[in-house]
Amino acid sequence: MPVMKGLLAPQNTFLDTIATRFDGTHSNFLLGNAQGHRGYPIVYCSDGFCELTGFARTEVMQKKCSCHFLYGHDTSEHVAQQMEKALEGREEFQTEVHFYKKNGTSFWCLLDVVPIKNEKGEMVLFLFSFKDITDTHGKVHHKKEGCPWTKGKTYSAPHFTHNPIHPLIILPTHLSRSLSPLQNMFEKPSSLPEYKVAAVQKSRFILLHYSVSKALWDWMILLATFYVAVTVPYNVCFTPYDELDTAARATIVSDIAVEMLFILDIILNFRTSFVSTSGQVVYEARSICIHYATTWFFVDLVAALPFDLLYAFNITVTSLVHLLKTVRLLRLLRLLQKLDRYSQYSAMVLTLLMSMFALLAHWMACIWYIIGRKEMENNDPDTWDIGWLHELGKRLETPYANSTLGGPSVRSSYIAALYFTLSSLTSVGFGNVCANTDAEKIFSICTMLIGALMHAVVFGNVTAIIQRMYSRRSLYHTRMKDLKDFIRVHRLPQQLKQRMLEYFQTTWSVNNGIDANELLHDFPDELRADIAMHLNKDILQLPVFEGASRGCLRSLSLHIKTSFCAPGEYLIRQGDALHANYFVCSGSLEVLKDSMVLAILGKGDLIGSDLPGTDHVIKTNADVKALTYCDLQYISVRALREVLEFYPEYASLFTADILHNLTYNLREGSEAEVRHTHLHCNLYQNSKNI
């Protein structure tokens, strides 16, 4: 499978931005529809608001955002009227108000109302922020921190402010006035997010991990890594110590160039995007730095230490410094980490396999030469003149006069050593270069064992290894080729082609091409039900299923399926027959009708319909469109009816509870549909009067 690009489509991250800005202060907020003239129904309710007030999300959705359900005996009518006036005028508003929780407990609340625009500059939503200030209420001239976009204001209890907002300005108009000059110098006011599909915000200094330029750079680093893996062992083993300085100076240009490449690679890795565990592409510089510093930075840093600069500045070095250069071989760990990227094609797999085999033979040739040199330098009168190097010198008529003088050239010695190791790895050798001393025989035995392992594991089963290692990748390429052939044969337009390819690649990255239904098909029903209960535990923990028996839950779990929706894709179209009820596992969606936002759905929301009748076809009353990448679980209406027929004692309970557990009811003629119709009629009548 090619390098995973991550999830790249433009997303409407409004909900994520709101939640992030509230983090650290509180997360008690509502979103109200600002496109109507009256009513302004609530389209989103945060978990923090539910915890603060005691109301469930389903009890709050589609109620008026003026929050009459929080009013009580001590709630100021004057404040309520001012809030209604601010909503009618699409204006900012902040005040202290006495609210009541569901259990009747009263609390003082710092209420902020901020209008939200879309990319066209139209007011589409109201953001309501609720902060419990019961403990601090009554203190004069104290600083209230309510909504993160209106922090820094000073109020005198129990007064309130009512400031109009210019129709073309998003930021609160009073924000800059309330901050002191010193604060304005050191604090940047938070910008209010817009409700729109946001393009990817990426600094031009961030390098995309899937770009062509990054791929070319990775190949250059791969070649430099192989250069290091070849030259460092050769220089350490085949170059005498008294000549190391001269040899190092001969290759100083290429060595320093490689060191600079490695250092530059470290710098680029601090500016290269990556794919997080959730599949999202991370462009933020700080997150990239933390990710790289906690993964491969130390290995890359040690491997990039510029030892060759010592020669450039004519600094005398010891033999230990030359041995320390072997730490550059740590770059091979990076090669293993990126092996999946380099091995996308069979030819590349074979090339890398042969390269690694040749590299292994090269390393063993270096060790073989060192063994021969050490045998001669030991000055043992019984063994110094019978080693393989001494015998090679005799054959080439360049014999050793003693343990240090004479002998074949370094070039001839390396070729002979590489010949021996390759012949020993691929066969049992030919005897013209053989082991004579005990140390040489032990090394030869190890080489033969490694060669046998290479034959048995690699060469003898290379086809089977490739098929096992890349069976999933082969299946991916087969399906991708079929998809591209289908697109070409039917001449699909570019936009539709792009949507199909992105959906296929993203779903494959999520499930790796594994069909769970097919995989579990041959398992016994009891085991399949237990597995399904575990996989679908989130949706089965919804309040609507609390009254179901374990047998009913097991039957339901076998019918729950998973789905995925990309940003901008429609999950449901208005007027279509509703085939399933959906549970949002991650991401956010919006419910639209006549280009008006009726609800915003997030993690944990349930959307669908009640079951009015056995043979009744449920028609949807609105569109459901994905704002971000969404993971969904769903159960079909037909399967739900079948299970309820087997468990009639739960069917009546489900019918009564589903209305209170649906975040939004998509059935035509439902209460939500009636409310929207009245709102639309009022809006039409008002525009007609104007």
TrEMBL record:
Residues 14-90 form the PAS domain. Its main location: membrane. GO terms for molecular function: voltage-gated potassium channel activity. The potassium channel is probably composed of a homo- or heterotetrameric complex of pore-forming alpha subunits that can associate with modulating beta subunits. The chain crosses the membrane at residues 216-236, 248-268, 313-333, 345-371, 414-435, 442-466. Residues 544-644 form the Cyclic nucleotide-binding domain. The keyword Ribosomal protein does not apply. The keyword Repeat does not apply. It comes from Oncorhynchus kisutch. Residues 93-145 form the PAC domain. One of its GO terms (cellular component) is monoatomic ion channel complex. GO terms for biological process: regulation of membrane potential. It holds the Pfam family Ion_trans. It is a multi-pass membrane protein. It is found in: Membrane. It catalyses: K(+)(in) = K(+)(out). Pore-forming (alpha) subunit of a voltage-gated delayed rectifier. Activates at more negative voltages, exhibits fast prepulse-independent activation kinetics and deactivates much more slowly, but shows no inactivation. This is Voltage-gated delayed rectifier potassium channel KCNH4. InterPro entries: cNMP-bd_dom (IPR000595), cNMP-bd_dom_sf (IPR018490), Ion_trans_dom (IPR005821), K_chnl_volt-dep_EAG/ELK/ERG (IPR003938), K_chnl_volt-dep_ELK (IPR003950), KCNH_animal-type (IPR050818), PAC (IPR001610), PAS (IPR000014). NCBIfam families: sensory_box (TIGR00229). Belongs to the potassium channel family. H (Eag) (TC 1.A.1.20) subfamily. Kv12.3/KCNH4 sub-subfamily. Keywords: Glycoprotein, Ion channel, Ion transport, Membrane, Potassium, Potassium channel, Potassium transport, Transmembrane, Transmembrane helix, Transport, Voltage-gated channel.
